[in-house]
Amino acid sequence: MSRLDTLKEQNPWMAHNNINVIHVILGSQTKYTELALSLIKKSPIQEDFDYIKEQLINRFKVPANLIPSAPNSILSLYYQMSQLGDSRINALIKFTELNEQKLINNTDLSTYKSFQDLENQIVIAELKSVDKELEKQLVKLYEDDTWLVIKPTSYFASLKYGASTKWCTAMNDTSNYFYRYINRGILIYAINKTDNFKVAAFKNLNPRYEKETSFWDVVDVRIDSLESGLPHEILNVFQQEFKTQDVTNWNLLSNEDKLEQLHQLKIKGKFPSDVDLEIQNAETTLVNSLRDVISNISRLGEIEAETNIPERGMEDMAEQILANIPDPEPYDDNVTVQVNNAAGQILNTPLGEAIMTRRYN
Fold first, then answer.
1. DSSP alpha helices (H): ranges in 192-332?
2. Which of 122, 142, 151, 155 is least surrounded by CB atoms within 10 angstroms?
3. Dist CA 57 CA 47 (whole Å)
């Protein structure tokens, strides 16, 4: 008898076909199927009982008088199997992949008692494989074998490092809160790399809002810093940053980086719908820089008329100014139009025409 057949005999509360489905989803490896069955049995979902009872009565025609005597594990099974795409199934799949890649710290599958245990190990494992592009979207304040302290400067970095918390700044369905906080002040995350313990902290720098220095636990409850569970050396990192820095996370970025980030948010459908004007003013800053370019190219005409600089030298100066026009590709349609209009005004001058002739002939 195969191990899978043994599991079916040991778990008569689950239909054999359902066990087969779980087995295939988790890569046809029996050890992960056994883990899934164990966790499902240990995780009855009390808050969903009313919904489950209603579904059993109306959808599956189960007599109401039989439901109270049904085992909790069967009700939990119904929920799990009717939500195959939910976070728990996805966690099982992700855990399977990471463990096969030797990235999971705790490889003793018998020690996992809840799906939260699983998710914690997943988050810890994924921190080992952060891509280089994401590393550019944060400021690392401290790291040792146990602790990592960062200032996230993008929503995507916040999602990665705030994973498995209830922080509003790491919500999957909206980036509003994240940009509201990083535009007003300093946002810091501390992460224990061994057990996924996390604390967030924020200091407001915007005089339009009340003074605030706050610490938050993983379920987004405000806590006292001394009761946060952070060791002294990590608290010192927070204190030093809050004491010595007066730049918001958002303003650590260049205008070009801000625009690129907003562009990526638009592409991925995560653009903040409720943000302060300072964020959207990044595009205005870009347009103002274009006006400076236009002004500089116009002054070249005056310089040419008043000096004896050779024509070739004037063309070199004009081309250097043109090089300061940013590529419009990352920006939205409004900015692209203004970039192209600015370039057109420059290139329609005699110097501009000379440059184009030199480039393409």
1. 232-244, 255-267, 277-306, 311-322
2. 142
3. 18
Give the helix/strand (H/E) hosting 27: none
What the block records as the tokens of 287 is: 């347009």
Q: Which residue has the tokens 């026009």?
A: 325
Condensed to tens digits (0 to 9), the pLDDT of residues 64-101 reads 666 654 445 455 545 555 654 456 767 888 889 888 98
pLDDT bin (cut points 50, 70, 90) of residue 105 is confident
Return the pLDDT at 266. Answer: 78
The number of helices, as runs of H, and strands, as runs of E, in the chain is 16, 6
pTM of the model: 0.58
* Maximum Cα–Cα distance across the chain: 102
Which of these, 125, 147, 149, lies nearest to 139 by C-alpha position? 149
Nearest to 181 by CA among 150, 160, 156, 209: 209
For 32-69, write each residue's pLDDT tens digit: 999 988 887 766 554 556 666 676 666 655 666 666 54
Query: Is residue 81 packed enough to be buried (19+ CB in 10 Å), middle (13-18) or exposed (0-12)?
Result: middle
| pLDDT at residue 19 greater than cutoff 60 | yes
The span from the CA of 263 to the CA of 269, in Å, is: 10
Render 197-228 in DSSP notation, one character per residue: -EEEEEEE--TTS---EEEE-TTS-EE-GGGS
* CA–CA dist 294, 225 (Å, integer): 52
CA neighbours closer than 13 Å in the CB half-sphere of residue 72:
10
